[in-house]
């Protein structure tokens, strides 16, 4: 009799499908759902893009020095040729900001009328997504907030990022550095002293141990000697301890009286 | 096994003239805990210097706003006569005093079980005296460098730091003199 399909199917089902003969259909459905969601997400991604701009948070600088304000961005699109960088400045306490730098059409335009004329320089690299500027010879009047705004067509939706410039006569030590240093040094010294103390004790004990070993080694003869050595090794430290505690007991008893 | 050993040692400590021993032990522990309490409060609470509308120091400043009802927490101004370095030193030593007091308690409890009979609690005494020294340094720097020409008065945290100093000195001395009773 030729092998009928009805004989083969149950065998294969027991090997692969066991108790659920519809498992194959379930996995198929799941896979198709996964592919569908992936395509939907990928299709939706370009529409939810936004440009992300990074600058520092705060910048500390000394009077008379130069400071580099860095501005970088992340965009899902390639850096286009019409990318624009613009920096604006708002002094501390003022409400309005003025524009001090603009890069467009491949050329930088620096401030030539405002508070930073002849002091501003463009040191960024637009191809590498860097729009940093350099301000020379800082003064106390330069305290304020600098805002960087980048547009990378067609990716133009984004939030400008600000960095705060603080000009000091003398750069102060940050809060807590001295506190932490004092605590760390003193605790470190303590640990060092304790470690040295225990190390000394250990070395002294070892020295005593090795001395007693050599003593008994010379006295004993062959097997006897080695046996005595072992016994004395076991007895000696405990003898020492017992002797010490006996002494102290006697001392304290005398003192009590 | 460990609990058995610990129990045996505790037994030895306490059966030998147990009542007076227990009283002494609890008294010393209470004093030590009081020291730790005072030192911690003095370090944490910002009440070293008071004026009518402000209390300040060590970590921040509470200033009373115009309404007479609102207290605002502010940073201590950095133009404190180059005080930010000295203030950080005071902070560091106050925290160290707290750390040493706690360490001394741990060492005391450890030595209670491991010390041989008739020996002194030197390690805990030394640590407690170190804590006393640290808080003394902090208080001296603070008293000498801050608020010399201002109108105001010292607050409760400052006084508690001094009391903590005294107690630390006392308990440190007790630990150095105390011996583990033999009977």
Oligomer: heterodimer
Radius of gyration of chain B: 21 Å
In total, the number of domains of chain A comes to: 3
Number of helices of chain B: 5
CATH superfamily of the largest domain in chain A: Immunoglobulins
* DSSP strand content of chain A: 15-25%
Spatial ordering of strands, largest sheet of chain A: 2-11-10-5-6-7
The structural class of chain A is alpha+beta
Query: Distance between the terminal alpha carbons of chain B, to the nearest Å?
Result: 27 Å
Which second-level CATH architecture of the largest domain in chain A applies?
A: Sandwich
CATH domain topology of the largest domain in chain A: Immunoglobulin-like
Mean pLDDT of chain B: 84
Unreliable stretches of chain A (pLDDT < 50, length at least 5) are 3-16, 231-257
Q: How would you explain this protein's 3D organization?
A:
The complex is a heterodimer of chains A (257) and B (183). With 257 residues, chain A is α+β, with helices and mostly antiparallel strands. Chain A folds into three domains: 13-44; 52-171, Immunoglobulins (Immunoglobulin-like), CATH 2.60.40.10; 175-202. In chain A, 44% of the residues lie in helices and 22% in strands. Chain A is built from four helices and eleven strands, in the order H-H-E-E-E-E-E-E-E-E-E-E-E-H-H. Chain A has helices spanning 5-17, 23-44, 177-219, 222-256; strands spanning 52-55, 58-62, 67-69, 71-74, 84-91, 98-104, 107-110, 120-122, 133-135, 144-151, 161-168. In chain A, strands 2-11-10-5-6-7 form a six-stranded mixed sheet, with no helix packed on it. A three-stranded antiparallel sheet of chain A has the order 3-9-8, with no helix packed on it. In chain A, strands 1-4 form a two-stranded antiparallel ribbon. In chain A, strand 5 (84-91) and strand 6 (98-104) form a beta hairpin. In chain A, helix 3 packs across helix 4 (222-256). In chain B, strands 4-3-2-1-5 form a five-stranded antiparallel sheet. Chain B: It is found in: Membrane.
């Amino acid at each position: 009799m030729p092998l009928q399909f009805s004989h083969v199917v149950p065998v294969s089902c027991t090997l692969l499908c066991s108790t659920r003969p519809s498992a194959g259909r379930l996995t198929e459905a799941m896979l198709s759902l996964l592919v569908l969601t992936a395509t939907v997400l990928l299709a939706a991604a370009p529409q939810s893009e936004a440009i992300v701009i990074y600058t520092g948070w705060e910048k500390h600088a000394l009077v008379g020095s130069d400071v580099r304000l860095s501005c970088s961005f992340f965009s899902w699109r390639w850096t286009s040729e019409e990318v624009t960088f613009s920096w604006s400045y708002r002094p501390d306490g003022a409400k309005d900001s003025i524009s001090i730098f603009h890069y467009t059409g491949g050329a930088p335009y620096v401030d030539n009328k405002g508070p930073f004329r002849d002091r501003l320089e463009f040191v960024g690299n637009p191809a590498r997504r860097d729009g940093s500027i350099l301000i020379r010879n800082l003064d106390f009047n330069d305290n304020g907030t600098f805002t960087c705004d980048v547009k990378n067509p067609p990716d133009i939706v984004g939030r400008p990022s600000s960095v705060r410039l603080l000009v000091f006569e003398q750069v102060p030590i940050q809060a807590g550095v001295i506190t932490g240093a004092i605590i760390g040094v003193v605790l470190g010294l303590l640990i060092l002293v304790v470690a040295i103390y225990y190390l000394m004790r250990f070395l002294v004990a070892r020295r005593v141990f090795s001395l007693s070993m050599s003593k008994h080694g010379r006295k004993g003869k062959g097997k006897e000697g080695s046996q005595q050595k072992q016994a004395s090794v076991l007895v000696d430290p405990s003898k020492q301890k017992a002797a010490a505690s006996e002494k102290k007991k006697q001392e304290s008893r005398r003192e009590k009286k | 096994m460990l609990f058995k050993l610990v129990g045996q040692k505790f037994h030895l400590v306490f059966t030998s003239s147990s009542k007076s021993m227990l009283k002494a032990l609890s008294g010393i522990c209470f004093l030590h805990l009081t020291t730790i309490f005072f030192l911690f409060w003095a370090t944490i609470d910002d009440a070293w210097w008071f004026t009518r509308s402000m209390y300040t120091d060590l970590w921040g400043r509470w200033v009373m706003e115009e309404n007479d009802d609102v207290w605002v927490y502010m940073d201590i101004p950095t133009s404190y006569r180059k005080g930010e370095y000295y203030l950080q030193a005071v902070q560091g030593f106050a925290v160290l005093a707290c750390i040493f007091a706690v360490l001394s308690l741990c060492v005391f409890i450890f030595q209670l079980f491991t010390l041989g009979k008739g020996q002194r609690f030197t390690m805990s005494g030394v640590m407690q005296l170190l804590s006393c020294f640290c808080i003394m340094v902090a208080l001296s720097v603070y008293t000498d460098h801050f608020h010399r020409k201002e109108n105001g008065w010292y607050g409760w945290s400052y006084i508690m730091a001094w009391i903590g100093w005294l107690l630390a000195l006392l308990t440190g001395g007790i630990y150095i003199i105390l011996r583990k009773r033999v009977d």
